[in-house]
Specification:
Mean pLDDT: 81
Strand content: 15-25%
Radius of gyration: 40 Å
Strand order of the largest sheet: 1-2-3-4
């Protein structure tokens, strides 16, 4: 028996079988059982602790939020502060007294009196419910459509930053600018120590052969992007594209597409690009940075193989722009060789289509040997051409998986042609007849 200041009496009853303690608390004034607690652990005090605390009571809400919204200084330097959660108001969108159980609390969610009678807490009816939409926390950032997103997540590379700012009265109508590289750089200063700045590489163009790129640095990201965009607008270059304008052979050029004039290879530092001309419908298959530049320039069909330092975005950009500037047009080739330039297309039954003629009006009298002229490998420097490995066209028929496939499909051979013949001669059953055949016999 233990007496406490709160006028509670405790009595412990010990059970030999379960070795458990059952503690009863009785209120002396009203002689009613208040609470019952069962403990199964041996050797602890039988005195009821009124100062019992749990983890939920000891940790405040601010401390809980601090665990998910903070990062150490070492982690902040390593970039772990980017993925921190934002503190949100969990009570937003909730109304005091309104819940899923549809209870009415007089004076809080309903009138306290009905005439002269005090109302009690009761469950609401359907007509007492107020049709109110659920308030949800709004997005801090608007959802970006998939086609307008960048290369990865919500990062800047690959996104559009709009046309350059107008210069005096001239506005860059039809232009668009895209970010190719966005990174933080730092340098040491004598008074400020390590000073960080933002470096941005932006390409701008009108999609019709006019484009330029520039690198700019600024203390903030927005300033660096704006500075690079306007700087690129002052360094525009025009690139000739094959079949962009057909010239005097417009009647014969029926297919409209845009690509380079010839295959070429270009090297910038440790980065090498092998650019191949492709026909209409091929699309741009290349490094994602080169694909972005092709959209800005207006090239639609191209294949580019990138070798070496593919992660050096500035070298990739410089190499691609320099390769486009150094390419030779068909008219320049005709003037240099003194020959007519014709094109063979499979969709035109390989009929020679004139593309360019010499400007002097006549061609050279002597013929050119085919061994000395290979248009596909004409513009590779130092005599080095890409290696094209021989692929056996019958290789797939020699695989064990192909032989197994033929064995499984052998029973279905010629069935498609036989079904077409049955349909022609009226021997193929209709859908109604097939349904009748599938029914079980009585």
């Amino acid at each position: 028996m233990f007496k406490m200041a709160t006028s509670y009496l405790f009595r412990a009853v010990t059970f030999n079988t379960k070795q458990a303690y059952r503690i009863f608390a009785k209120e002396i004034c009203c002689n009613q059982i208040v609470s019952t607690m069962t403990a199964s652990t041996q050797g602890f005090s039988l005195i009821f602790s009124r100062t019992y605390t749990s983890f939920v009571k000891t940790v405040t809400a601010d401390q809980l939020w601090l665990g998910v919204t903070s990062v150490s200084n070492a982690g902040r330097k390593r970039g772990r502060a980017r993925s921190l959660k934002k503190r949100i108001d969990l009570n937003r969108g909730q109304r005091m007294g309104f819940g899923k159980t549809r209870m009415v609390f007089p004076g809080l969610t309903g009138p306290p009196l009905a005439g002269k009678k005090f109302l009690e807490i009761h469950k609401s009816k359907e007509q007492e419910e107020e049709p109110r939409p659920i308030e949800r926390p709004r997005r801090k950032f608007l959802k970006v459509p998939p086609l307008l997103r960048g290369y990865s997540g919500r990062k800047f590379p690959g996104t559009s930053v709009g046309p350059p700012d107008p210069i005096n009265d001239y506005e860059f109508t039809g232009f668009d600018s895209k970010v190719l590289e966005y990174k933080m750089v730092a340098h040491m200063t004598g008074n400020l120590g390590r000073k960080a700045t933002i470096s941005a590489l932006v390409v701008t163009g009108n999609g019709a052969g006019l484009a330029g790129y520039a690198v700019a640095k600024a203390p903030t990201g927005k300033a660096a992007l704006r500075k690079a965009k306007n700087k690129a607008a002052q360094r525009l270059q025009y690139f000739e594209r094959y079949n962009d304008h057909t010239g005097k052979f417009k009647v014969l050029m029926t297919l409209k597409f845009s690509t380079v004039f010839h295959n070429f290879a270009v090297t910038e530092g440790k980065t090498t690009l092998f650019v191949q001309k492709k026909s209409k419908g091929h699309g741009v298959i290349s490094h994602r940075v080169i694909k972005t530049m092709c959209e800005i320039i207006g090239i639609k069909d191209l294949y580019v193989k990138t070798e070496g330092r593919t992660g050096n975005i500035q070298n990739v950009t410089k190499a691609f722009f320099r390769g486009l500037m150094e390419q030779e047009t068909h008219q320049q080739l005709a003037d240099r060789m003194g020959l007519n330039v014709v094109e063979y297309r499979a969709e035109m039954e390989n009929i020679p289509i004139p593309v360019a003629t010499p400007s002097q009006g006549f061609s050279r009298p002597d013929a050119l040997k085919e061994e000395a002229f290979d248009f596909d490998n004409l513009y590779y420097k130092d005599g080095r051409i890409p290696l094209k490995k021989y692929v056996d066209p019958n290789m797939k028929f020699k695989l064990p998986s192909t032989l197994k496939h033929f064995q499984l499909e052998n029973r279905y051979r010629n069935q498609r042609e036989a079904r077409l013949l049955r349909i022609v001669h009226g021997l193929e059953p209709t859908l109604e007849e097939l349904k009748i055949r599938q029914k079980p016999l009585k």
